[in-house]
């Protein structure tokens, strides 16, 4: 898969499928491979562009200046590189921050938005949480324990009922060949902590879907959705049983909601 020299980094990206162009933007510490559970089905309807955000995956170097705005600039510069005039942007968590920022600062390049597990800002609790997870990485916390602790915030209680599923997820995370460095994780965490989009939400003019898990404890729906509905005309879709990472835990429901919103057959 290719890389593009953009804004001082070698940005890795993948392209799958054909049709209207849909860019999938991953969250903190995640990259293009986090979309594996939904790639095949979405690629039946769209041309997918999956970048590895700066500081993550196969985009190099990892330890570079990182802000939400810089990652947005990278994503939109990739469109120029590929000669794509506009795109639907679907972002998860931090990726939703990026998606909203792209929509306001590059309105001509973003046609529609899907915000999965999103908020418009990082709460004080979550800033402490990000800082603590960064400290655990820096001090050498055992990898399996670190990922398992992270999963408590990403997945529903039901996920943990099957120990084989949990252990396999941990194994895949630990053995992933393109891990994020502690410094790069800290850079992305600081970018999230510094981001507050509440005042800009009314400036989002694109048709927008707010896709949220009812059991999301990282961005609780009763807090996040009320704020995000400042986006004019935003549609809300809640997934029963799902937590923060809907596309990983409930891929069929995720694809169904996305296709329904985007009018794909």
UniProtKB/TrEMBL annotation:
Gene Ontology MF, one: hydrolase activity
Q: Does the keyword Hydrolase apply?
A: yes
**The keyword Flavoprotein appears for this protein:** no
Q: Residues in domain AB hydrolase-1?
A: 20-249
SUPFAM superfamilies per record = alpha/beta-Hydrolases
Q: Which UniProt keywords apply?
A: Hydrolase
The protein in question is named Alpha/beta hydrolase
Q: Which organism is it from?
A: Endozoicomonas elysicola
Q: What is the lineage of its organism?
A: Bacteria, Pseudomonadati, Pseudomonadota, Gammaproteobacteria, Oceanospirillales
């Amino acid at each position: 898969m290719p890389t593009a020299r953009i804004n001082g980094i070698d940005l890795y990206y993948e392209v799958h499928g054909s049709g209207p162009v849909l860019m999938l933007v991953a969250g903190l510490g995640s990259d293009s491979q986090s979309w594996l559970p939904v790639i095949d089905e979405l690629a039946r309807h769209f041309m997918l562009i999956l970048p590895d955000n700066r500081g993550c995956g196969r985009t190099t170097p990892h330890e570079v200046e990182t802000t939400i705005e810089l990652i947005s600039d990278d994503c939109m510069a990739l469109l120029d590189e590929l000669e794509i005039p506009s795109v639907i942007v679907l972002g998860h968590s931090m990726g939703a921050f990026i998606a909203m920022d792209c929509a306001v600062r590059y309105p001509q390049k973003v046609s529609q938005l899907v915000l999965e597990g999103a908020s418009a800002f990082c709460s004080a609790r979550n800033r402490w949480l990000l800082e603590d997870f960064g400290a655990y990485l820096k001090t050498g916390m055992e990898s399996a324990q670190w990922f398992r602790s992270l999963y408590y915030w990403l997945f529903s209680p039901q996920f943990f009922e099957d120990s084989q599923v949990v252990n396999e997820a941990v194994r895949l995370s630990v053995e992933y060949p393109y891990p994020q460095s502690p410094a790069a994780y800290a850079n992305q965490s600081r970018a999230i902590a510094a981001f507050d989009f509440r005042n800009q939400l009314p400036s989002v003019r694109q048709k927008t879907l707010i896709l949220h898990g009812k059991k999301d404890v990282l961005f609780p729906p009763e807090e996040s959705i009320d704020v995000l509905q400042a986006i004019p005309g935003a549609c809300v879709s809640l997934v029963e049983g799902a937590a923060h990472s809907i596309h990983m835990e409930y891929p069929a429901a995720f694809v169904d909601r996305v296709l329904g919103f985007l009018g794909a057959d």
